[in-house]
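re: ur question from earlier - yeah i can do the single chain one, its not a big deal. heres the input i used so u can compare w yours
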Amino acid sequence: MYSFSQELNYDIMQENYIKDLQELLMEFDEETLVLNDQGKGMFTLECITHRVFREHQVIIHIKIEYDKKLLHKIELSVEPEDSGDTTNYELDLKLFYHEEIKGRLLDAVNKKKSKFTIAICVLILIVIIAVVGGVIIKNNMENDNSNESTSSGKRLAINKDEKKEPEVKIVKSEAKNVEFEDFNNGLISMKIPKGWKVDTIGDYIHYTLKVYNPENPTYQFFLNMKTEGYNKSQDAKNFYQRYYPNQIFAQNPVIEEETTEGFYKIFNELGPLNNTASFTFPTLNNFTIIENLGSVATGGDLLRASFTDENGKEGEGIFMAYVYDAGSYYMSENIISGKQIDTYPLNVYNTIFITAPKDELVDWEDTLNQISSSLQFSDTFISQYNSQQDAVMTTFQNIRSIGNQTSDMIMSAWESRSAAYDRMSQKQSDATLGYERVYDTENGEIYKAYNGFTDDYTGERYKSISDDMYTKPTDGYIEKIE
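and the output i got, formated as tokens:
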């Protein structure tokens, strides 16, 4: 069973969130809905609902804790209906919460805002009609002998005095203000954002490249041609540590699952083995797949995943790598057991990824992908690379076009990704940071506006976005005019 808990502490004296949640739980399963008095002024709403996660039937338990003043907490747990189902549903449960429960709360708040705004607009309209009507009546009384054309002229004069579009303060986003500059070290050339750094390490077939923002290295493009010598099992590593402790295989990581995900789960072990004074491998703690975007022509999968960096900050990115098994070579564990261990190492090709801080990949994907598409290798590099490459590289790796190929694959997969995660994640981010998302009806640009903008704004140009727009990058921010 997997559990998820979210502390809220929402004030229910002003907004009746409990009523909204009770209606939602009744929609889930009215028959299982129970109200419990926990004593000391505490109450819980509980219900059970059935869902399908990854083509498996699951049971979700929901518990809402509150008192007369605050909505304190929402707790969820999930268990498969099939006792033999061992799937990890932790991410599915979080998506369910943010999409179906937290999203309902946000929609309720926005709906109440819209009703309030409409009520204010109606009140203003009534006042305007009363004032304008009074002026017209007064004018008519003063001009009883005026002809029809004169009367019409006065009405036209009133209609011409239309409200101008109110001033809006827009600040363009950092991603939209990126300026590119040329980088060339004699081996590679590419376009990189102004002020970013480029670090490299390795010979030609092991060439490793990191392009990053020094002020926040989570904005990055990473490429490694080949790493090798990974153990296939812990038994294989134990074998080398016992009999050949000085060999690199005794230190190298174990890729227990020969997949792209399996490799990235041990990616952090590359740093301690390879870091130098001038090059540090990125840190990808808590690597968790958000979505498998499909297989890659050059081998392996293209993954969208979340992680935390060395400072504990959350990030997300698009990752690819090809784990290659060149064959087997069995050795006896020892004379007594006779157990056979496959000691032939694994290689990993085309380790490539782009990353950005959590919830910012939507805005930065295009900029990071432009780095990849602009990557070119000099004739010197290609000549040396060709002399070192192995048979596997000859088969699938076209060094001249690797940058463009990678960019095209990322772009295609990104455009066809599932929208559910972005809708949930971006809504949660806006709620946490205090933004409302609107778009410009004249040019389609999307902005994060300060909380309360849609109440303050009286024009027609900027409208609240629809759900499908959460998958699109934002162009900037609307700030409050003091």
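The longest strand covers residues 216-230. not sure if urs matches, ping me
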